[in-house]
């Protein structure tokens, strides 16, 4: 299988001895939309920080685009894997939006027209071109999130990794964000995100990975989130559609729906019997 990222027997310990990842092995296919779920402390962020070298591999291996991750290839790695932090204020620091988005490409050696084109295209994709010369601290939280994504896009990575991307976003902000991510995925980019939002995941993801205590307890299609025992073990919630239909499953003898569309189709079928 053609993996964008492959992880084998990855373990990670913090300086106080806390084990954050425990012999974790999995692979992410190129061009897919992948969601990593799990409770707080499950290892999601620790894992993401390995993908572009912020966390150094201690035990096991991480391979990106067929190349093993190690300290000597971090510059190459960060050009391949763009990481968007949960809080955009941890990522935005320049005097204007344009300067902030340009920071990464400048460090890649871009100048002149090529730099302008790269930055302007990134801002166009996130619909922030009109605010290019505005100070970031005057922006809304959702706008800052878009600037952080634009800063990653301007480096033209093959993969975009986002940590809790919908945290503190209103419904309009969520729709806008995932519209952008879908466009990027259609361009061939692999999108990986960590989240607690199961309803978002079942509507959006191609592949789901569930972590608890630094271990993978399940991976596969989003439908696995309709398994009550698994969801309870992972300290998550069933998707809303599954919660509604679960008590009445014996009445219709079919799989529990996981998305709103699944539920609507099942209701229509039941009403036309």
TrEMBL record:
It is found in: Cell membrane. GO terms for molecular function: ATP binding; ATP hydrolysis activity; ATPase-coupled transmembrane transporter activity. Keywords: ATP-binding, Cell membrane, Membrane, Nucleotide-binding, Translocase, Transport. It is a peripheral membrane protein. GO terms for biological process: cobalt ion transport. SMART domains: AAA. GO terms for cellular component: ATP-binding cassette (ABC) transporter complex. Its main location: membrane. CDD domains: ABC_cobalt_CbiO_domain1. Residues 5-238 form the ABC transporter domain. Probably part of an ABC transporter complex. Responsible for energy coupling to the transport system. Belongs to the ABC transporter superfamily. This is ABC transporter ATP-binding protein. It comes from Desulforamulus reducens (strain ATCC BAA-1160 / DSM 100696 / MI-1) (Desulfotomaculum reducens). The lineage of its organism: Bacteria, Bacillati, Bacillota, Clostridia, Eubacteriales.
């Amino acid at each position: 299988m053609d993996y964008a990222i492959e992880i084998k027997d990855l373990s990670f310990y913090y300086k106080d001895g806390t084990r954050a990842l425990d012999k974790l092995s999995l692979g992410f296919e190129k061009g897919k939309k992948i969601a990593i779920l799990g409770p707080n402390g499950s290892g999601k962020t620790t894992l993401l920080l390995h993908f572009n070298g912020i966390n150094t591999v201690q035990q096991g291996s991480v391979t990106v685009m067929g190349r093993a991750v190690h300290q000597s290839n971090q510059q190459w790695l960060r050009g391949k894997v763009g990481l968007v932090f949960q809080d955009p204020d941890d990522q935005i620091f320049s005097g204007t939006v344009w300067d902030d988005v340009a920071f990464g490409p400048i460090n890649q050696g871009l100048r002149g027209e090529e730099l302008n084109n790269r930055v302007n295209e990134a801002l166009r994709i996130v619909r922030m071109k009109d605010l290019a010369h505005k100070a970031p601290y005057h922006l809304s939280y959702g706008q800052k999130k878009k600037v952080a994504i634009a800063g990653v896009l301007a480096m033209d990575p093959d993969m975009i990794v986002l940590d809790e991307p919908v945290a503190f976003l209103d419904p309009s902000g969520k729709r806008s964000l995932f519209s952008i991510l879908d466009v990027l995925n259609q361009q061939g980019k692999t999108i990986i995100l960590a989240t607690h939002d199961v309803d978002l995941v079942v509507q959006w993801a191609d592949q789901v990975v569930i972590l608890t205590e630094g271990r993978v307890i399940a991976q596969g299609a989003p439908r696995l989130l309709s398994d009550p025992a698994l969801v309870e073990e992972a300290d998550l919630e069933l998707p809303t559609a599954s919660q509604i239909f679960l008590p009445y499953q014996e009445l219709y003898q079919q799989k529990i729906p996981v998305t709103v569309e699944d539920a609507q189709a099942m209701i229509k079928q039941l009403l036309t019997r």
